[in-house]
Design brief:
The chain is of the alpha/beta class. It has helices spanning about 60-70, 85-90, 105-110, 115-130, 140-175, 185-190, 195-230, 235-245, 250-260, 270-275, 300-315, and strands spanning about 25-30, 35-45, 45-55, 75-80, 95-100, 280-285, 290-295. Helices cover about 50% and strands about 15% of the residues.
């Protein structure tokens, strides 16, 4: 008698039992000089839920790194404050996405009547979950280095100007200020002024600081020339274009290129004007328009360079 046929079992993958994908966490970071506050949010059935709050000392970089390594899939947001860079460098390779928030545009935090580090971190996390973070520009490593050199040069030049003004004030106190006071002949004139011992002590000290700052300025200028030699093709091309413009010299070129960063991110010249804070405001009501002063938002150094260039052009032409 023929036996019963063997049963054959076929296994088909059931989509209902596949491995569950990890839940994305949205982490808000409220960063200060000494401490860092974190808040983690997940979205469950369309609702946002806080899953953790954490606080670290900024010195505990190993602990911060280890904490983020345990988070699985996550996105992280931090405001573009003065000291955000070290944090992004620490965790950006772990994050599925990092976002640099524009603090000026994220006014919900700045204008909140209930404000604390814990609340600020939660607001950032929830806005990230809603994909409503106004993003800020993060300059590349080269642009960050460029800005350090250019801004240091500006600081030295301001310091030199301040020191010269103080020396001139000292000479004017004795009715002895002259044109060309800092030339060789002018310094001889300064040495011949019958000052009191205290005034001469201060003047000598100011002249020593002036000489030091002038020497440092020469070193910065040399460093900037060396830095320009390593520029990528796009930066070299932009530098050459700027050099063809009247009354635009090396200092102005360095300021414009460093402060704008990747200039290709601006869709029009008007965007650049707005970025420099040179765009005038206006208010219109009932058919009447009142023009306001320039906004003075954005880079003060870039605004200064463009205004000085405009004055040079006006005086020449």
């Amino acid at each position: 008698m023929r036996g019963k046929p063997e049963a054959v079992f076929l296994f088909f993958p059931n989509p209902c039992f596949h491995k569950r994908s990890p839940v994305m966490k949205f982490i808000g970071v409220d960063l200060h000089k000494q401490t860092i506050s974190l808040c983690g949010v997940v979205v469950v059935d369309g609702k946002r839920k806080v899953v953790f709050r954490k606080r670290f000392s900024c010195r505990d970089t190993a602990g911060i790194r280890a904490f983020f390594e345990r988070q699985g899939a996550f996105q992280v947001v931090v405001e573009a404050t003065a000291n955000y860079e070290w944090f992004l460098l620490l965790v950006e390779d772990l994050a599925d996405r990092w976002v640099l928030a524009h603090p000026k545009k994220l006014r919900v935090i700045a204008e909140s009547t209930r404000k604390s580090d814990k609340i600020d971190a939660q607001v950032l996390a929830e806005f990230l979950a809603l994909d409503m973070i106004p993003e800020a520009y993060r300059p590349s490593e080269r642009i960050r280095q460029y800005r350090v050199l250019v801004r240091h040069r500006r600081w030295l030049q301001s310091r030199i100007t301040s020191l010269k003004c103080k020396v001139r004030h000292k000479a004017a106190h004795y009715n002895a200020d002259i044109a060309g006071l800092f030339s060789e002949r002018g310094l001889q004139h300064l040495a011949g002024i019958a000052m009191s011992d205290a005034d001469w002590f201060e003047t000598e000290n100011l002249l020593e600081q002036l000489a030091l700052c002038q020497e440092q300025l020469k070193k910065v200028d040399k460093q900037l020339r060396e830095f320009a030699k390593t520029a990528p093709p796009a930066e070299r091309e932009a530098r050459a274009v700027l050099a063809t413009m009247p009354e635009v010299g090396a200092v102005t070129i360095d300021v414009v290129l460093s402060e704008l960063g990747d200039w290709r991110r601006f869709r029009s010249a008007k965007r650049v004007v707005s970025y420099a804070g040179l765009d005038p405001g206006s208010r219109e009501s009932a058919g009447k328009t009142r023009h306001l002063k320039i906004s003075k938002e954005g880079s003060r150094l870039l605004r200064w360079a463009l205004i000085e260039t405009a004055w040079r052009l006006r005086n020449k032409y």
